[in-house]
């Protein structure tokens, strides 16, 4: 992996010193505890991270672990899923829809939120966008004047989506994601290219893997005010969808995961669960 910027470390995303200090202590204690552990169960696979598992033989890969691998519907969401978006996807052509979702914790300021909205409008491509409650720092999340009317049926906006069902839908062309590990695994196992928009913590490392190691996605460049502009969003959407290489590499990664053999369980009676979040 190429070097990570210090500003991309998890504690660098917060302004309050107490928050920075708390996160630092969590990382420090995790490192100390890890030295006492013989084996780690890791929700990943050597096909995705060969160098990592070569460097750390005490890590036992058992992934990808996805709720879609189990019988029944996924439960335990913070918000109620809007399954009507699946019917909307049914009406869209194959590989034509941009899916945008930033997980449970990403927060935008109003300016960045509006730039994202306008960038999706300028792309002139169908999109499904998850705008959950509390997604902006403001009391209420406001779209640009007349936005919903202008995008019309080309854009579908929901408060929460059945993400794994969305990502398996043939209409979805790419995933604009915060690059949380669960979302990353869900996108990778469905052969989707990414537009990476990390927020904090391991999401920046996951973005690096997507862009530089797997080469299945692109990132965004921020402008002078630290804002990703509507023009940058439109440009990266066009670049990703206009280059079939990203889709080919994403499908190749999916096939490698489908062909992987079951991983043996570590030969120890007690195993510490290491969560890669």
Automatic annotation (TrEMBL):
Molecular function per GO: UDP-glycosyltransferase activity
Alphabetized UniProt keyword annotations: Transferase
SUPFAM superfamilies: UDP-Glycosyltransferase/glycogen phosphorylase
Nucleus as UniProt keyword: no
Taxonomic superkingdom: Eukaryota
UniProt xrefs under Pfam families: UDPGT
UniProt cross-references to CDD domains, sorted A to Z: GT1_Gtf-like
InterPro entries xref list: UDP_glucos_trans
PANTHER family found in the cross-reference section: TRANS-ZEATIN O-BETA-D-GLUCOSYLTRANSFERASE (PTHR48045:SF27), UDP-GLYCOSYLTRANSFERASE 72B1 (PTHR48045)
The name this protein goes by in its record: UDP-glycosyltransferases domain-containing protein
